[in-house]
Design brief:
The complex is a heterodimer of chains A (304) and B (102). With 304 residues, chain A is α/β, with parallel strands linked by helices. Chain A contains 8 helices and 13 strands. In chain A, α3 runs parallel beside α4 and α6 packs parallel to α7. Chain B has a single domain, classed as Sandwich (Immunoglobulin-like). Classes of the chains: A alpha/beta (304), B mainly beta (102). At the A-B interface, loops of A face loops of B.
Chain lengths: 304, 102
């Protein structure tokens, strides 16, 4: 089964530590060790970096210093030889959606050298229901509704919100209005344009009993199928899982705060306590670049 | 008869306590326990989260909604109207349970 393969691959990535470069060529992803890729010199300027699941306000055993690890993650971005055009945060910026936690997070995120930040909410950011704190701070780009699109260096970016209005026992959901908006947004794009879609919860089904998926996953995949180069990014599960379906690569990011168990291991998707020396190997960011061949390439970097 | 005589002073004592819950639901290991609670109209239910992960108590039909409950946080709601109230955790919607008010 695909999921099992993905999890095995994810473990392989975790074990590599230094990072793995995924190159997209004719719709097929190939994994190359980062050190090897660097010597080949074909890694282009980073288009953007992905930061996820910072959970500012969390203070339990799994990581008593989440502000420290977010700062380390940002330092890692700031020391990249070429600064990315912008950063995205794929949600769970805060742990409990309080104004104080958002203030702390924004202070730290403002130290990014790249000044542009695009953020989508995680369910931890909207526990008040309407997500007032989140949208007051990050909702301007979308007129307060959260989902929007923009273009950068020829790539079309789509930010989606799948953490509002959960149904009992359900997965993440876009809802009818957003799904219609997405269909219209993508309709006018040429199939040759590279597409990057990002949201907080997986936009594909990873593990339904824990809600690791999105109700409209099949509709979304159908809309993206005609494009030649697509990357779909999310956070939420605090570990890397990846799969490729035709020209679409689905990739989940590590957290900057704490790891979570693999799907179905233990009672639920809560913080996973690991030996202190191992934590940095399980936290990190992702960097997406366009290589010299004009293809999207994805690199994961860990804190340690 | 004996039981009634004993119960009356006990009830009077409990009613005087300010935050008395007629039923308590604990949240542990991503489950509400008990999952089905039956109370009388006017009764109060208190939820307490014992998980290290925050949870919420959110009525499916919008009748009540807690803020995010961190470990050992509690939330109470007084049910005045009879009915069946389904609720979920808005952070982990796989968690669901029911309050029945008679």
């Amino acid at each position: 089964m695909n999921d099992k393969t993905s999890r095995r691959d994810a473990l392989k990535c975790l074990g590599m530590g230094a990072g793995t470069l995924f190159t997209l060529s004719s719709g097929v992803f190939g994994a190359v060790d980062l050190a090897e890729a660097a010597t080949r010199g074909n890694v282009g300027a980073p288009l953007f970096v992905q930061i996820s699941d910072s959970h500012i306000g969390f203070n339990k055993d799994a990581n008593p210093d989440v502000t420290g690890t977010l700062k380390e993650s940002i330092a890692m971005v700031n020391t990249l030889p070429v600064q990315p055009g912008f950063a995205i945060h794929t949600g769970d910026i805060t742990h409990l959606s309080t104004a104080e936690q958002f203030d702390t997070a924004q202070q730290i995120l403002s130290t990014l050298k790249t000044s542009e930040l695009h953020a989508v909410p995680g369910e931890h950011d909207v526990t008040d229901g309407p997500g007032t704190e989140f949208f007051n701070r990050f909702g301007k780009a979308s007129g307060g509704r959260g989902y929007y699109s923009f273009d950068s260096q020829g790539v079309h970016f789509v930010a989606l919100v799948n953490v509002m209005n959960f149904k009992a026992g359900g997965l993440g959901a876009l809802g009818d209005d957003q799904l219609t908006w997405l269909k219209n947004d993508l309709a006018s794009r040429p199939a040759s344009q590279p597409i990057v879609v990002f949201a907080h919860m997986p936009l594909w089904t990873i593990y339904e009993p824990w809600g690791w998926g999105t109700a409209e996953a099949l509709d979304i995949a159908q809309m993206l199928r005609r494009f030649g180069s697509v990357i779909v990014l999310n956070g939420h599960i605090h570990q890397i899982v990846q799969k490729t379906e035709g020209n679409i690569t689905f990739h989940t990011a590590r957290s900057t705060a704490y790891p979570q168990p693999q799907a179905g291991v233990g009672p639920g998707p809560g913080p996973l306590k690991v030996p202190a020396g191992d934590l940095g190997k399980m936290l990190g960011i992702s960097s997406i670049s366009i290589n010299r061949a004009g293809k999207l390439a994805l690199t994961d970097k860990t804190l340690a | 008869m004996k039981f009634r005589i004993l119960a009356l002073p006990l009830l009077a004592l409990l009613a005087a306590a300010p935050a008395f819950a007629d039923a308590t639901v604990t949240i542990k290991n991503f489950d509400y326990s008990p999952m089905d609670v039956t109370i009388k109209a006017g009764d109060t239910v208190t939820w307490k989260n014992l998980d290290g992960e925050p949870h919420t108590v959110v009525s499916v039909d919008g009748a009540f909604r807690s803020k995010a409950l961190d470990e050992n946080d509690s939330y109470s709601f007084k049910f005045d109207k009879p009915g069946t109230y389904k609720y979920i955790c808005s952070i982990h919607p796989q968690m669901k349970a029911t309050i029945t008010v008679q």
